[in-house]
Amino acid sequence: MSAATGVARADEGRWQFWVDRGGTFTDVVARRPDGRLVTAKLLSENPEQYPDAAVQGIRQLLGVKAGEAVPAELIDVVKMGTTVATNALLERKGERVLLVVTRGFRDALRIAYQNRPRLFDREIVLPELLHEEAIEVDERLAADGSVVMPLDEAGARVALQQARGRGFTAVAIVLMHSYRNGEHEARLAGLARELGYTQVCASHEVSPLIRYVARGDTTVVDAYLSPVLRRYVDHVAAALPGVRLQFMQSSGGLTDAQTFQGKDSVLSGPAGGIVGMAGIAQSAGLDRVIGFDMGGTSTDVSHFAGEYERAFDTLVAGVRLRAPMMSIHTVAAGGGSILHFDGARLRVGPESAGANPGPACYRRGGPLTVTDANLMLGRIQAHHFPEVFGPNADQSLDLEVVQARFAELAQEVSAATGRDVSGEQLAQGFLDIAVANMANAIKQISVQRGYDITRYTLITFGGAGGQHACRVADELSMPRVLVHPLAGVLSAYGMGLAASTAMRERSVELPWDADGETAARRTLEELAGIARADLLAQEIPADIIQIKNIVHLRYAGTDTALPVALDGTQAMLKAFEKAYLQRFSFLMPERGLVIESVVAEAIADESGQIFQAFSEGNGSARPGGPEAADSVRMRVADEWRTCPLYRSADLRADDVIAGPAMITDANATTLVDDGWRATVTARGDMLLERAVPRPQRFAVGTDADPVMLEIFNNLFMSIAEQMGYRLQNTAHSVNIKERLDFSCAIFDSSGELVANAPHIPVHLGSMSASVQAIIQDNAGSLRPGDVYVLNNPYAGGTHLPDVTVVTPVFDQAGRDILFYVGSRGHHADIGGLTPGSMPSDSRTIEDEGVLITNFRLVENGRMQEDSMRQLLAGARYPARNIDQNLADLRAQIAANEKGREELLKMVDAFGLDVVHAYMRHVQDNAEESVRRVIATLHDGEFTQLLDNGARIQVKLKVDHETRSATLDFTGTSAQLPNNFNAPRAVTTAAVLYVFRTMVEADIPINAGGLKPLKLVVPQDSMLNPSYPAAVVAGNVETSSCVTNALYGALGVMAGSQPTMNNLTFGNAQYQYYETISGGSGAGGRFDAQGKLVGGFNGTSVVQTQMTNSRMTDPEVLELRFPVRLERYIIRQNSGGAGRWHGGNGGVRSLRFLEPMTVSTLSNGWIHPAFGAAGGQPGALGKSRVIRGNGKVEELAHADQAELQAGDMFEIETPGGGGYGAA
């Protein structure tokens, strides 16, 4: 299966070169004039040997000597993918960028959607901004694109001129609603060019799609990366004068070097891999494949079923990109992923050893990695690996040091767990974990989306993919693996298969009716003309250009748009419903459809028929099969076996190799695992198939094993996350879909928490009490097909809008309850005094909405919709949008059903006794992690005062002998006559959250975390109220204060804003709720003895502590509700001073375009976020109504107001406290 090599001669015709310039290696595939393919692999950075790897690879394959010019007449085209821009983004080494925004939005990209990336980190670290400076201009458009305020062009000219004087040459222009009307941006862009800016990016041209934050980030990325990309492109072009040069875009299409933009370059290399995967799938006659690209630091997985899957919203390196990209899911499990032992579990990644020092076997003192585990088990053979290691780059991989390091780790694991384990067993365990992690990543792009993965073929590529492909396929019950001859350089090969494309998209946001469809078709016709012109400008013949038109449709009131090919109306509806049913398992025919956006793609396929040409002699199979080149020792099924090693160059079509066996070539190693069989096809591919049926049941003991502990922990969390994915994508309300104000969890048979997909901290731990209330109230009467709903705050609920749906999971016979699954979502309205069900003046639970206790929502598989509707309508203050409540409940039922299905699959795979045992083990693991933290703590106490005169008092008493602690809330205020009472479940959740943040390692959140903690919460106190106490502020406000009080008693950090700043507004037609972020507290870092060794600053305008809900994008907010966001900025100098300063709060101003009732629930207007260890408190919060006539009315921390059209609500959120004396 080797490709031919040789030196070109002018009379042989012309060459093509396909290049993937990666971060570590540059791969080159060349098509010789005679059609044969040759390859080269070089280090991407080797300045002592050559200035550029791509050019050097071309010179090497052409046989051009040093100092000689590259003969351009021999080259037809160079097609390249590059990580130059990606690396600049990751390393934050792009161009200095000036951001120009609508006045009031200078901090919009920094604040973004408010959520923090890591829920349990006390030090909140946000991605570094790409723009260096932001200036505001006076102008404003409405949501429909009409002009509210004309552009002050004179003022903009002055600001731009001053910034140009400060050295800026790149500018990103992002104005509100410019996707509707780009006139203001176009005028500013003209000004910038006139003033000498050389890189000018306007958002309506870069990404003409709704969502200000994502469009803004995309535009800044374009300005930040395009100059870097241009310099590289010019460098390559100068080295290859006269050669046609094309680059791969993130969308999977090639474009001329001069039109290659920064925003389209971020996935340039990986996109080539998907094109290559799709090409070989189609040539092999495979219509459903999963791409498995495993490299050194990570693994990329992708799905292909006849059409490229593209995402238009992607998060890369902390930056939101609203541009077409190949849909790729990345997991931090590569050959260089570092292996850890945390005292109980084995862990793989996410950290990587990189290229330097690299794995332990690289002879640079690196850590143990997945590569080392493979070497330890004989799955990599040192003497069949290039000898490029050691000080003189002439030594093989170091097996001895790997064996010694695994032996040391085995002793550590044995001592900690009491289980006798060998180095080989450890290496195998780490591989098992890595394989499970990669399989879970594939589930996210397949199983979660409704695809039957057992009907798919796994196509493996990348340097490490072939070593693990059979194992990953087994994990997913996939029957086939395809390995291409160029699997090790498939991304480069994909460059040769790719078509030239130009893609143009635009938001439409119109109902799908006759007028909307006409508008969409007209827009597509315009975009298609622009895309076609782009290709014609690249001198591509008009007769090979094809146009592909796509319409993105979604149900009204939802955010999940699905792509549908432009066709007749009924055909498009049928295609949409088929895709929606596939993804979500139900339809909503009663809801209208909305055209979200349209995409026109011009495609010109110039690649022709490309195939791998083989050396002569590689003909049909020989009698007796292929001859092994060597015999090697490899660990197979817990024993060492002698296995054949074959060189791929020696294999012929129809050769069959039975596993276990190893196949090597210059670019990769492929393992044929035991029970598998490899067949060489006529195309030169290797088709790996299961020769022996895969075991249906895994033989796993019930005793805690550090390998299986990590695998089950990840499996349990994966199920909870799959439930969350189903809920987010099928819910109707903005609260659940966009703000992610929901949580999903699985519970053991007694209702104790096993795994909780962490979205909202206040839900942590509290759902168990709701599940246990259902168990207690229905003892002996639960039946298969039953689903229950409740929001009772005296039975595990938090506040009435948080509605919990509980499903018992019965065995297949329907006799025994094995587990429970639950989902809790914040409904936009559940009744009560005010729209949004967050009244500031409620005095009893009846004032806050419909109280639901132990209601059977589904009986024998049938939803009791009429009864539920009556319940929601029958309260004194009924729900205002019952149809939306029911839609969200259906989504919660669907999420629970997903959890039920996955848990039963787990039982089938491992056995019920094993699953139950590991539910206990993961809880024990969390318990031990918390006990270790407690051992480092000291006694403490703290009193937190609330603005309403209440107090929260907590005393921490540590028992170092038992490594347990008592948290005594005696002295806390009695049950309050207002709504700041917090159900005990909320207090429990706050305690669990705080102690989880004290654990540095990533551990699961479950009931085990509470076992070392004794809570004393006096009955009928504000933290343990009785019916009919009002509680709506307790869930949001009091929970924040409990968290602050706990940190105060621990002494580890200052207070964050002591509030969630709840804002609700609405009328008979609209209801909306949001929480508004403020400053986080600064804190200290401590050693194992509790000594202060450092600290950290607080973070500005970010969700803290008991919430992490997202803010609705300002353009989406204004499109859906009659409001106008005037500004949302950082409130400078509002964080407390100290050695480490607190984070700043924010200023948010909303002008109402219709009469609305506005209700606020806040705290910290009288008592600020406290400073600690000598630090100063943060600034107090404030809120006010500014009437249309200019009159200002100050509001209390919990207040309500009637606003008329033209009135404005404004809030200044509290800052966080400082830590340590300045």
Automatic annotation (TrEMBL):
Acetophenone carboxylase-like C-terminal domain boundaries: 524-680
GO CC entries: cytosol
Hydantoinase A/oxoprolinase domain span: 215-502
Residue span, Hydantoinase B/oxoprolinase domain: 705-1221
InterPro entries: ACX-like_C (IPR049517), Hydant_A_N (IPR008040), Hydantoinase_A (IPR002821), Hydantoinase_B (IPR003692), Oxoprolinase-like (IPR045079)
A Gene Ontology BP annotation from the UniProt entry: glutathione metabolic process
Top-level taxonomic group: Bacteria
Pfam families: Hydant_A_C (PF19278), Hydant_A_N (PF05378), Hydantoinase_A (PF01968), Hydantoinase_B (PF02538)
Residue ranges constituting the Hydantoinase/oxoprolinase N-terminal domain according to the UniProt record: 17-195
GO MF entries: 5-oxoprolinase (ATP-hydrolyzing) activity
Family that this chain belongs to: Belongs to the oxoprolinase family.
Stated name of the protein: 5-oxoprolinase (ATP-hydrolysing)
Native source species: Eoetvoesiella caeni
